[in-house]
Amino acid sequence: MSIGSPNFNRQAKRREATRQEILAAAWEVADEQGIGAVTLREIAERIGMQPPSLYSHFPSKMAIYDAMYQQGWEEYLEVVCQLEPRLPAQPRAALATVAAEFFDFALAKPTRAQLMNERVVPGFVPTAQAYAPAVAALDNLRMTLTRLGASDEAAADLFTAVLGGLVSQQIANEPGGRRWRLLLERAVDMYADEVGMPGPRLTARTELAGSHS
Amino acid sequence: MSIGSPNFNRQAKRREATRQEILAAAWEVADEQGIGAVTLREIAERIGMQPPSLYSHFPSKMAIYDAMYQQGWEEYLEVVCQLEPRLPAQPRAALATVAAEFFDFALAKPTRAQLMNERVVPGFVPTAQAYAPAVAALDNLRMTLTRLGASDEAAADLFTAVLGGLVSQQIANEPGGRRWRLLLERAVDMYADEVGMPGPRLTARTELAGSHS
DNA sequence: GTCTATACTGTGATAGAC
DNA sequence: GTCTATCACAGTATAGAC
After folding, report:
1. pLDDT score for A209
2. Residue B213 confidence class, pLDDT cut points 50, 70, 90
3. Are A124 and A65 in contact (CB under 8 A)?
4. Which of A10, A95, B40, B111 is the most exposed place for a label (fewest CB within 10 A)?
């Protein structure tokens, strides 16, 4: 059978389906027991395979992590692409929307966020191909920030740091809670003030302790 | 031999010395090859022991990680305790000093910072005892922030998020570099402005793109 | 091409001799 | 307290059935 044969499409589809099945099982294990609990045996058992059979679809366990990493960022990229044309006109409101989307996306599946943003798997470094959608998403963010008024590259770095910090604190200290989620609008205002973004604040400014005599 | 016997002190000291030797070897491996590369065999080899002998001093590998975690936070706690009486009078300068100390402490040993702040070891959760110095350090930070004018609890959470975000971005994207380190003073100003901290800014405010006609 | 069967290496962990 | 021996399980790899 050659590439052009009638059976090619069918077999390729079946192969891709198996690949997705493997990844789905891997995500299942990761969500239930943590990224570190993902083993080839566990994946194989869930889809009724023998562990070595997985090597017909992925060259190594790292390749599975790599595909998961890529999948996570592709999902996020799609979210922001769908979001962008529907952003509010007000710069601060737009920034708050972007921030909320990022935060909620991360907290919806903390395990996915950990794999995407932290180094939870010892020795795992995403390949260039898997890293591509992450770069695209970051470029998109930079573009949006520039459009909204945060001109310099440093401003973009500051924004990702603030946003990433809030997400990471929420996941590490209170997964499932909203303690840092509630700080999101205030953080956006803080950032918007810093980069001189116009428009009224989204949140009321907190008074300094002792300053209200 | 009982607890009160003359040999107790000597034996206890020797035992504690061995414990420290094990931990030192573990840090050595972690610094050289990453936290995930720490194995009982590698530790044992470095101090001329057989791997199972480590179990005479630590009940499990997790217990070793736990002791490392505690050690890291104890080191940081000592740093901030020595720092506090020497803080500048100006609130913003004081805040900048605290932030710089935290950042530089973390970046001095990224592996230590990862263990302290991120979930790099699958399944590892610090025990209450190991977590104690971390709580003490955080309480200290909260106290300092309150004294400097950031009254509410939310303000403290916001500060740790910003600071943690900067550190985490630096470690993840450019370990050994200074890209996010250079944003530290600006971030402190941003935060100080948000909580209404008095005093002049430490950094010049960046103009909004297009606003300088 | 895909799956089964089997084996190799390295890991954390335990039991028992000294 | 340290050692030797051993276990269970991980990821990985290869050979061979179909």
Report:
1. 47
2. very low
3. yes
4. A10
pLDDT at B76 over 90: yes
Give the HSE-up count for residue B210: Cα atoms under 13 Å, Cβ half-sphere: 8
The residues, ordered by sequence, that sit 6+ positions from A194 with a Cβ below 8 Å of its Cβ are: A158, B186, B189, B190, B193, B205, B206
Kindly state the DSSP code that residue B36 receives in the 8-state scheme.
G
The H-assigned helical ranges of B34-125 are 40-46, 61-83, 91-108, 110-117
Q: Give chain A's end-to-end CA distance (angstroms, integer).
A: 85
3-state secondary structure of B70: helix
Tokens 């100006």, residue? B90
Chain C positions within 7 A of any protein Cβ atom are 1-7, 10-16
Name the average pLDDT for chain B: 92
| DSSP letter string, A76-112 | HHHHHHHHGGG--SSHHHHHHHHHHHHHHHHHHSHHH
User: Which amino acid, B137?
Assistant: A
Question: pTM of the entire structure?
Answer: 0.90
Cβ–Cβ gap A195/B180 under 8 Å: no
User: Could you give the maximum distance between any two Cα atoms of chain B, in Å?
Assistant: 85
Q: Which nt sits closest to A44, CA to C1'?
A: C3
What local confidence, expressed as pLDDT, does residue B1 receive? 57
Nearest chain B CA: its distance from A115 CA (Å): 11
**Nearest-5° Cα angle at B155, B154 to B161:** 90
Residue type for position A15: R
Does A205 touch chain B if contact means CB atoms closer than 8 Å?
yes
Query: Which residues 6+ apart lie within 8 Å of A52 measured at CB?
Result: none
CA dihedral over B104, B108, B114, B116, signed as positive or negative: negative
Alpha-carbon torsion A196, A199, A203, A208, what sign? positive
Rounded Cα distance, A5 and A14, in Å: 15
Nearest residue to A182 (alpha-carbon basis) of A84, A96, A109, A117: A96
Q: How much is the pLDDT for B26?
A: 98
CA of B61 and C1' of C11: distance in angstroms?
A: 11
Q: Which chain B residues in 119-148 lie under 8 Å from chain A, judged by CB atoms?
A: 119-120, 122-123, 146
